[in-house]
Amino acid sequence: MPSDWERALAVVAHPDDLEYGGSGAVARWTDEGRTVTYLLATRGEAGIDGMAPEEAAPVREREQIASARVVGVEQVEFLDHPDGMIEYGLPLRRDIAAAIRRHRPQLVVMTNHRETWPGGPWLNMADHRNVGLATLDAVRDAANRWVFRDLLDAGLEPWGGVRWVAVAASPQATHAVDITATIDRAVASLREHRAYLAGLGEAGMGDPDTFLRQAAADAGRRFGNVLACTFELFPM
């Protein structure tokens, strides 16, 4: 993975998305003195079957903020698009482009926008795909002065300094980050999603420690048999 950058913006659909594939890398980056900001399209209000969305939204927001702090992320923003019903389109692209202009990252991180997940035929959900595609387009939108001209009126000048987009948990991974030293914090960050994990129950992915360590070991087999977070990397 590239290392000559200072600021990253991680854009995902829901609370817990980064914890299932990217937080170990985030912990390593913040340990190295880099700044990472989280941008979430929703508050995850539709993610707990036994909890009404009005109750779930503030719970999941608090859990995500606590989870981010475990891996050294202090700034977490939420866009309030509807969980489970995110539409690809200009409003979503504009919101993400505005965040890119505000935070001026050199690296944009997102989660898998492909139709399936690594290692099997499991289908990816529309929220992930739509946010991912909108993020890819918003990187270019953020650099174009004449796209979303109202952002100029809001004082957000164009930012064309994004050099890479890194897609976590992609079935077409090309790069990896060694997270051997940060796997414990990756697990701890996922455990902060207590209400969400409790809501999954037996339908979930099992114990976070077992799941994440096994996933990191599987991912790292291609990269020297280390514990790893993998990414599909797009140079811009």
Automatic annotation (TrEMBL):
Q: What is the lineage of its organism?
A: Bacteria, Bacillati, Actinomycetota, Actinomycetes, Pseudonocardiales
The record ties this protein, via SUPFAM superfamilies, to:
LmbE-like
Q: What is the top-level taxon of the source organism?
A: Bacteria
Q: Does the keyword Endoplasmic reticulum apply?
A: no
Q: What is this protein called?
A: PIG-L deacetylase family protein
User: Which enzyme class?
Assistant: hydrolase
Molecular function (GO) terms listed? Answer: hydrolase activity
Organism listed in the record: Prauserella oleivorans
Keyword match Zinc: yes
> What are the protein's UniProt keywords?
Hydrolase, Zinc
State the EC number(s). Answer: 3.5.1.-
